[in-house]
Amino acid sequence: MTEINRRKLFGLGAAGVAAAGAGVLATRSVLEGPPPAAAASTSDPVRFYGEHQAGIVTPAQDRLHFISFDVITKDRAELVDMLQEWTAAAARMTQGKDSGTFGAVGGHPEAPPDDTGEALGLPASGLTLTVGFGPSLFDDRFGLAAKKPAALADLPHFPGDTLRPEISGGDICVQACAHDPQVAVHAVRNLARIGFGKVSARWSQLGFGRTSSTSRAQATPRNLMGFKDGTANVKLEDAAMLRDHVWVAPGDGPDWMAGGSYVVTRKIRMNIETWDRTSLAEQELIFGRDKGVGAPLGKKAEFDEPDFAAKGPDGEPVIAVEAHIKLAHPTTHNGARLLRRGYNFVDGSDGLGRLDAGLFFIAYQRDPRTHFVPIQRELARKDQLNEYIKHVSSGLFACPPGLRDAGDYWGRTLFA
To answer: Reaction(s) catalyzed by this protein (predicted)?
Structure first.
């Protein structure tokens, strides 16, 4: 049993909402084609060009392939050339086309194909590709040290972290989201193929079952603990929230990041078997939400605002002070919000009959120092959920602004 007040376990009516993660934000997506909020089906393409990169405020797709690369070339010009090739391939693939000019079968039969071919005949499936640059890229290899954002400072160690270096960090990340897992994997595979000899894969993560809604048109999903997740996320339609909490503003510094955002990733393994043996009443107290309809304890509907001052018949708070919803709520952190778009993962078992499963947390924000770091510090110190989870990987990347047109490329504002 956790430290949560057990007097509430019996007699406290269940009325709650899904998992409390720090709020999320969204606006219109950026890809060539119809705006994502107006897409007729999950097979449609998402616009590639625009003010911001696609895949941040785009309505969250069902599948993820996230990959982090180490740059192995020492030639700055070669790295820039690769980023230009990546951008051209991404512009094609997000529209449902092959990654190269001649495609999987149109080139010379004695030469390797321009595309790996596993997405032949498949639609675009809402594919988005989002790129970010890690702190390690700004060492002395490419002359970028003076352009490193202060907000890209390495994340601190949080209490309870059991991070594995081999699945953390990296120079460049690519987030591929789509409604078809094969489309997402195809995109990452072809970027890795194009980058051969210039980058090497450091780590990657497959995800399914989005754990956040980033548009009011989407129902709130559930995490692998069975609770609705991302209820408090700010949506695509909330432009003011996005401006204040997600997009780097001119003057935030440096200039090349204006219109971009910072992404934090955390692989959070859940002790599934232990959680499954925990009583429903305790599960709801830990989250501070009802497991069924997803309302905050003491409320009736999913989107009701939690009342942290409400007391039960025993005089104790209806929502415990150490409940996840309370610790992660914007009112606990000077109004700070995150744009969360994480995914569930199941990576087999650990050899002892326990599932290697949990949440691949993804959160975009204007500045990790004022958003993710204080929120996670509070959760790491006090959250009763920590008895059932452990953070095993971590990443931080600066995602530059969107692409203007076909003459632009990922990182142009950085390498110019």
So the answer is: heme b + 2 H(+) = protoporphyrin IX + Fe(2+)
Per-residue pLDDT band at 18 (split at 50, 70, 90): very low
Higher pLDDT, 6 or 181: 181
Give dist(CA 21, CA 339) in Å, integer: 10
Q: Which two tokens stand for residue 256?
A: 């090349």
* Closest of 352, 384, 377, 346 to residue 267, by C-alpha: 346
Residue 191 has pLDDT above 50, yes or no: yes
Single pTM value for the model? 0.91
Gap between the Cα atoms of 209 and 67, Å rounded: 18
Query: Are 350 and 260 in contact, with CB atoms under 8 Å apart?
Result: no
Q: Where are the alpha helices (DSSP H) in 5-162?
A: 76-93
Question: Is residue 369 within 8 Å of residue 153, measured between CB atoms?
Answer: yes
CA angle 404, 262, 74 (to 5 degrees): 75
Phi–psi pair at 189, nearest 5 degrees: -60, -40
Whole-angstrom distance, CA of residue 408 vs CA of residue 412: 7
Among 22-36, 298-312, 364-378, the least confident range = 22-36
In angstroms, rounded to a whole number, what is the distance separating the alpha carbons of residues 360 and 364?
Answer: 13
- DSSP collapsed to 3 states, 128-197: EEEEEECHHHHCCCCCCHHHCCHHHCCCCCCCCCCCCHHHCCCCEEEEEEECCHHHHHHHHHHHHHHCEC
Distance CA 373, CA 206 (A): 25
Of the pLDDT bands very low, low, confident and very high (cuts 50, 70, 90), residue 40 is low
Asked if 344 and 205 count as a contact pair (C-beta separation under 8 A), the reply is no
pLDDT category of residue 337 using cuts at 50, 70 and 90: very high
The more confidently predicted of residues 112 and 29 is 112
Handedness of CA 224, 226, 227, 229 (dihedral sign): positive
The helix (run of H) or strand (run of E) holding residue 265 is strand 261-270
Average pLDDT, the chain: 90
Average pLDDT estimate for 77-92 = 98
Asked if residue 299 lies in contact with residue 16, where contact means CB atoms within 8 angstroms, the answer is: yes
**Residue 79 contacts residue 72 (beta carbons within 8 Å):** no
